[in-house]
Design goal:
About 30% of the residues lie in helices and about 25% in strands. With about 350 residues, it is α+β, with helices and mostly antiparallel strands. Helix 1 packs across helix 2.
């Protein structure tokens, strides 16, 4: 009986410690997450040194990623009470910016004695040294970009999902900041669950003065992305489901291959697109081109960016010409399609 009592007491103590750690993580993520990164990096380096007999002297920094918080917040419910706290939201990615290099550590060179000095990022600013400790010269430093350290940064715009949006309301967006390996992790149209730190930044009246306005801009520093899918699997019959899925895919591929050999495939696709709507063949061809998309271009080999191959279509016409019906049919086919209307009910 005494062993059982001590065991139950130990379980209660562990649950209490985990709940207190979770509360600290939610309320003070700016202080807690760097400590977790440091501990994980130290443990990893110790294991590597033991395994390789102290041959691997290069240390590696590990970033801890968090998933599946207990509470899920809506984008329109984020307020002042969530500032500087860890939040979990869901939405649809609608825009990605190009990759922005952000300086983390700057290297300055003295113009008199050629001594190098490093300056670390402090509160989003890097302060240039004033005095040289070697020759005591003042205002003699110049920035050396080749020796400075940069990290990748990307801005992402997230829009709330239609199921979380009240009827008749316009969707609300939130600004996300992604760093390092989270850059280019998502594409526009992906449904994601985001965990990050909700932050507020003051707007300065003059960049040279410290006076700020009473209105703050809010954004989220992303810690982890989780792409959401509608696939549901049963753990009890995984083998049978996979076999049936493979059979269905193989039959479907055979039908597609046979259709591709048909010389009249273009007209077949036009006739099968929105068959309840007569005529408008040119409009249907344009919408079919948008559904199939174009060719994605990648210029990363020559230092460029990636460009999506999606085709944009502007549909203009007189009232009662089946414009909305055609778009609703596109919405039913496209997996990432979202149908919106300007009508307020």
């Amino acid at each position: 009986m005494q062993r059982i009592y001590y065991k139950q007491k130990g379980i209660l103590l562990i649950n209490f410690l985990l709940s207190s750690l979770y509360a600290q993580l939610i309320n003070f993520p700016t202080e807690t997450i760097p400590i977790m990164d440091l501990v994980a990096s130290n443990v990893y380096n110790e294991i590597c040194n033991l395994d390789f007999n102290n041959q691997n002297k290069q240390t590696k920094k590990i970033q801890v990623r968090l998933y599946e918080l207990a509470n899920l917040s809506r984008i329109r419910d984020l307020g002042p009470s969530e500032i500087d706290k860890l939040v979990c939201i869901r939405g649809i990615v609608i825009r990605n910016s190009e990759i922005i290099p952000e300086m983390r550590e700057a290297c300055f060179k003295c113009g008199v004695c050629n001594k190098y000095e490093m300056a670390v990022l402090n509160r989003t600013k890097i302060i240039e040294p004033v005095d040289c400790k070697n020759c005591n010269s003042k205002h003699c430093f110049e920035l050396i970009h080749n020796r400075s350290l940069f990290s990748d940064k990307q801005h992402v715009k997230l829009q709330e999902t239609p199921e979380h949006m009240p009827e008749g309301e316009t969707p609300i967006t939130v600004h996300l900041c992604c760093y390092d390996d989270l850059v280019d992790y998502t594409k526009p149209g992906d449904r994601c669950e985001i965990i990050g730190v909700y932050r507020a930044q003051g707007i300065r009246l003059n960049p040279k003065h410290r006076t700020t306005r009473t209105i703050f801009r809010t954004y989220i520093d992303v810690i982890s992305f989780t792409k959401l899918t509608n696939k549901k699997t049963n753990s009890n019959n995984e083998d049978s489901i996979e076999q049936e899925h493979d059979v269905k895919i193989s039959d479907f591929e055979k039908e597609i291959i046979e259709l591709s050999k048909n010389p009249d495939i273009y007209n077949i696709l036009v006739d099968s697109f929105a068959p309840s709507i007569w005529e408008n063949e040119d409009v249907k061809k344009g919408l079919l081109l948008q559904l199939f998309g174009g060719v994605s271009k990648d210029f990363s080999d020559i230092g460029g960016n990636k460009f999506r191959g999606d085709i944009n279509v502007l549909l203009i016409g007189d009232p009662s010409t089946a414009k909305s019906q055609l778009l609703q049919y596109v919405h039913s086919i496209a997996p990432r399609g979202i149908f919106t209307s300007g009508k307020v009910i």
